[in-house]
Amino acid sequence: MSQTPVVTRIAPSPTGYMHIGTARTALFSWLYARGRGGKFLLRIEDTDRERSTPEATEAILKGMEWLGLDYDGDAISQFERADRHAEVAHEMLASGHAYKCFASQDEIQAFRDAAKAEGKSTLYRSPWRDADPSTHPDAPYVIRVKAPLEGTT
User: What pTM value is reported for the model?
Assistant: First the structure.
């Protein structure tokens, strides 16, 4: 029986300083990886360019050092890998594992507010999930994972 190597990671957002929840998650992930001879990675979740700051990133790195939590390789910038993430998202669209959702934040929030008022689930199910791509508008969209609607995932 072959075992898959353990790889864990922490992905703090540099929109503020490291807090106890980030430190706790880092500690558990580090312990799990190190206890199994695996790797522990640090990915800086810096895609919110308006709120991410170099000072907060530096505070995260210093916090990790202060906690004594080393990580494997270099810290990875999520923003610097944006092209790769877009490439994978478009591959998922092409293979049918993702879809374009044109619902606005206002539409989604209105759905959630109405569902909450009615005591129903606020899980948003996009009407675009199974829409014919030829009917897609020329409008902003997000790419959503097309997870199975039934069964166990």
Answer: 0.69
